[in-house]
Design a protein that fits this description.
homodimer; 296 residues; alpha/beta; Arc Repressor Mutant, subunit A; D-Maltodextrin-Binding Protein, domain 2; 3 domains; seven-stranded mixed sheet; two-stranded antiparallel ribbon; 23% strand; rod-shaped; DNA-binding
DNA sequence: TAAAAATACTCCATAGGTATTTTAT
DNA sequence: ATAAAATACCTATGGAGTATTTTTA
């Protein structure tokens, strides 16, 4: 059976064209080297050297096999190095899911950091709602999710990384745009635009219950999956909404954001990953998330 | 030190994801297999498997290294196969020199045969006179020469493969074109076109001495290196020439070839190669030359 | 005859085997 | 309780060393 040893020895002899010197270079005696080369030739089924006792020369086949052998050892080095990089989480591929609002908030910061620190890990991004992310995480279709807690699944690990105040989004033309802040009760007769409850039950219920504490049940005139859509609808005067403050980053014309007077309700974003997945690139990614987003 | 054994074992375990079954497949016991994998991991500096006693799983780095390992073993197979082909003279490269007249005669037959029997050997052809071929052979710049004997060099082996009659080449307009054959004495007063003596001393001297036996010294009015040129000059009425019969293949308009009445002088072509060069593709080529050109 | 590869043999390192333990399900 | 990997220990193959012979320039 051919071993790498044979190739290493062969390369040495081919380079020295002298068994004695090659043996010296390999820190071994000459006879076993002759043996191993002979054995290699037997395994290969062809001569590597023309041997005339006094001089050693590569055969034509030997020359070809020399080039191939060098390539092989070099590739092994490469393979080891690549393996080590993957092991350190410096090379690989990550598939990431995120809710649309994360795109305005945490994602840009984290991705910029990750890309600069670990450039050899390819990132694949998929925008999708929380519940879909949970399925994809379980199926291994994504490795990391940026989503809205809570998550019940015991197989998934979840850390909240952002907790931001909610603000009221009003059409530019609305009379309340002059107020410095708004109490919920002032919105009792407004039409509300919200996301469908299954998308983020906790946030949804929070808003509803706050309104009820303010003495009214909100009149939901429209639902929309995407935050962009909600903001657009507000701009269009369809109604008002309560959105995470980071949406201000969108700079949508025709919309004014106002803080709430109430003890501020919060929108949360969390990272989630499979508890038993110790893939180094995931670990590396989570480290960077931690660095960037130490949650107070 | 990593050996191919390690890779073979690793691939087996990675494919079975079960040390026991992998060991069985490798016709060995399970403990030494565990040992070898452990040793491999130590050499690599990273884990290949997540081992939880009850289940074996590839790590991310392990997956990458698995693909690389498979590639490596496959490439070794390839290298061995290529080496064997080269050894059998079925793959490689040959550089061949030939005198211009060989192009009308032996070369086409031999090359056609060789290309069909040994398609994977690349041929490089260089037209050049005999003396230059000898230098290039000695320098290793060509491997095979088709040239005009004799060759004195002891380091070169030479076999004559073609011995063909010489014929007289006359301009179409010449009065002797009606004769069925020609005696040299009939050409005593003609102007002769010949190649320079150094190009093929034997053939040159042969022609001169034949003329002298016929009672005259030929009047050489023009010399030319290439047979084509000689024939063109004859066609142009500059003079007559004595050329190998295979030149008739050229079908040059304006020239008529006539056999000689004299005991036919002969033009020879030989193959030459370095005696101590046992490169299989050369051997293979020479075999085919022998097959095709068994000299009577 | 001198230099270098091949042979002959000897030895020991280590690959591989056997028996057993550990551990997770 | 059981299946599977790890650990401990032993065995023996074969890789490597030493001494010697063979070969040819």
């Amino acid at each position: 059976m051919i071993e790498l040893r044979h190739l290493r020895y062969f390369i040495a002899v081919a380079e020295e064209l002298h068994f004695g010197r090659a043996a010296e270079r390999l820190h071994m005696a000459q006879p076993p080297l002759s043996q191993q080369i002979k054995q290699l030739e037997a395994e290969l089924g062809f001569q590597l050297f023309h041997r005339t006792k006094r001089s050693v020369q590569l055969t034509e086949a030997g020359q070809v096999f020399l080039a191939e052998s060098r390539k092989l050892l070099h590739q092994l080095e490469q393979a080891i190095e690549t393996g080590r990089q993957v092991n350190r989480g410096e090379k690989g591929q990550l598939v990431i899911g995120f809710v649309s609002s994360a795109a305005y908030n945490v994602l840009p910061v984290i991705l910029r950091r990750f890309r600069s620190q670990v450039p050899a890990v390819r990132l694949e991004l998929h925008e999708m709602p929380t519940n879909e992310q949970l399925d994809w995480l379980r199926d291994g279709k994504i490795d990391i999710g940026f989503l809205r807690p809570p998550v019940e699944d015991k197989a998934l690990q979840v850390t909240t990384i952002v907790r931001e105040p909610m603000v009221v989004a009003l059409p530019e033309s609305h009379p309340l745009t002059d107020a410095s802040q708004i109490t919920l009760s002032q919105l009792a007769n407004e039409g509300f635009i919200l996301f469908p409850r299954p998308l983020s039950p906790r946030a949804y219920d929070q808003i509803i219950s706050l309104c009820q504490q303010a003495g009214f049940s909100p009149n939901v005139v429209q639902e929309a999956m995407q935050m962009q859509t909600i903001v657009s609808l507000v701009a269009g005067g369809i109604g008002v909404s309560i959105v995470p403050v980071s949406l201000e980053n969108m700079q949508r014309a025709g919309v004014v954001y106002k803080p709430l007077a109430e003890p501020t309700p919060c929108a949360e974003i969390a990272v989630a990953w499979r508890q038993n997945d110790h893939s180094p690139s995931i670990q590396r990614f989570l480290e960077i998330v931690n660095q960037a987003m130490v949650l107070r």
